[in-house]
Recover the amino acids of this structure.
């Protein structure tokens, strides 16, 4: 059935994005540079699957006129694949930017970025999990994690800017690190968007644009 | 729902021993389109026919409960069935024009009701044909046989014939199921326009037609009313699993 096929492709593209995020976090935290070829190959696979998802959704809309939970699933599938594709692109940007950060390890340690990067990895994994299991508590965890990641990013960026103000030698690396942090934050935002679509799939309630504190998840 | 036109209370219908409708209770709002959906044999057409007592014509039918039209139970002994059917018109799946001229098809009902004045009849014919969105296609050949019209035109003619006796309520039993997409679209547009003046109840097997044309949808299954609600809610987030399974094509 087309809907089952669509679900499997989304799980597949989600796993590929998870791999890309892990690669980008490794590139940031370890000395070894990420394998450029592999990353490119995965990016290519994600792009192909993203197009495939659009084609399947188009065909289901045209031929099957989906309603109710099927309709919500297909609407969400199109949005989710879009979000995943962007997660993949941001991961590549992180890998590229990381190469231009001198004294990477010192900066990462100084601004406590390792834990933040691991949390972004975790939120990506949880996002795939919530799509598969449609588990309400996992959706809630993603929202909380995203909030934590955002706060940590804001703090780290503030500290880096303070450092750059007093130490001009830190400006180039500091700027690149800020860009990486913004990318990590965006990845977490995309994961949150996916969790919102999963929530919509389950409850037919649109919660995007709601403030974090106003969010009341249906159970 | 405000302005309730029809209120059904615990209505059951038996064909002999067989219970075909089981304690149906619902409220049908005035000047809205209510769609009845459900798999074949679920009772939706039987229910539709209860609304103007068409089932009276079937032997061995027993009906219990109440069918209140504007507060009056149409199954009361002192209610005149002819008046009921004047007030509640019906359009069938297969168009059934009389083998007469287009003009006579429309004028027939009003004539029976005692209107003899030619000018008055002419006006009723024109207004009815205009309301049924077929006037422009037939105005120059009102004397021609209605049987020479296309299927879609014949169906709109039948709607015009129904309108000619000034009903309040129009019942439609799959009115577009035998028509091509263009004629279907004309009927659907017509339904949309007619609801300004009439309360319309439509039985359809076409889910998209129910979704496009109706304000409220009632889902029937095995003689029971499973769920009734605003069409938008029924087709986006139905309350009952049986409704969800039916509209998403998982059974039926």
């Amino acid at each position: 059935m087309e809907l089952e096929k669509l679900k499997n492709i989304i799980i597949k593209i989600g796993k590929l994005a998870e791999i890309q995020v892990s690669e980008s976090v490794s590139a940031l935290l370890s000395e070894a540079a990420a394998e450029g070829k592999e990353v490119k190959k995965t990016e290519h696979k994600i792009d192909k699957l993203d197009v495939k998802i659009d084609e399947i959704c188009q065909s289901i809309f045209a031929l099957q006129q989906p309603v109710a939970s099927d309709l919500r699933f297909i609407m969400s599938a199109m949005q989710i694949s879009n979000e995943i594709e962007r997660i993949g692109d941001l991961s590549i940007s992180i890998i590229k930017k990381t190469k231009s950060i001198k004294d990477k390890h010192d900066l990462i340690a100084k601004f406590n970025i390792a834990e933040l990067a691991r949390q972004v990895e975790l939120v990506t994994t949880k996002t795939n999990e919530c799509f598969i299991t449609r588990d309400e508590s996992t959706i809630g965890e993603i929202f909380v994690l995203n909030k934590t990641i955002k706060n940590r990013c804001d703090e780290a960026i503030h500290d880096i800017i303070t450092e750059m103000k007093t130490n001009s030698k830190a400006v180039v690396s500091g700027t690149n690190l800020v860009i990486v942090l913004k990318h990590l934050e965006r990845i977490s935002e995309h994961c949150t968007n996916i969790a919102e679509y999963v929530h919509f799939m389950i409850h037919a309630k649109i919660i995007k644009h709601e403030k974090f504190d106003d969010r009341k998840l249906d159970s | 729902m405000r302005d309730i036109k029809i209120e059904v209370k615990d209505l059951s219908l038996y064909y002999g021993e067989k219970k075909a409708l089981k304690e149906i209770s619902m409220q049908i709002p005035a000047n809205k389109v209510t769609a009845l959906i459900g798999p074949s044999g679920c009772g939706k057409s039987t229910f539709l026919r209860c609304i103007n007592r068409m089932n009276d014509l079937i032997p061995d039918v027993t009906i219990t409960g109440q069918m209140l039209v504007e507060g009056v139970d149409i199954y009361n002994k002192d209610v005149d069935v002819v008046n009921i059917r004047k007030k509640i018109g019906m359009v069938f799946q297969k168009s059934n024009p009389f083998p007469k001229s287009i003009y006579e098809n429309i004028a027939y009902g009003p004539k029976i009701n005692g209107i003899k004045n030619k000018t008055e009849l002419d006006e009723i014919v024109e207004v009815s044909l205009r309301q049924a969105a077929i006037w422009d296609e037939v105005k120059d050949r009102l004397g021609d046989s209605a049987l020479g019209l296309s299927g879609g035109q014949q169906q709109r003619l039948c709607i015009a014939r129904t309108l000619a006796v000034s009903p309040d309520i129009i019942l439609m039993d799959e009115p577009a199921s035998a028509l091509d997409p263009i004629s279907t679209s004309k009927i659907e547009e017509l339904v949309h326009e007619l609801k300004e003046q009439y309360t319309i109840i439509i039985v359809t097997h076409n889910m998209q037609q129910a979704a496009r044309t109706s304000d409220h949808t009632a889902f029937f299954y095995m003689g029971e009313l499973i769920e009734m609600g605003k069409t938008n809610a029924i087709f986006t987030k139905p309350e009952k699993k049986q409704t969800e399974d039916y509209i998403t094509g998982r059974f039926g």
Notes: Chain A touches chain B through ten residues (CB under 8 Å).
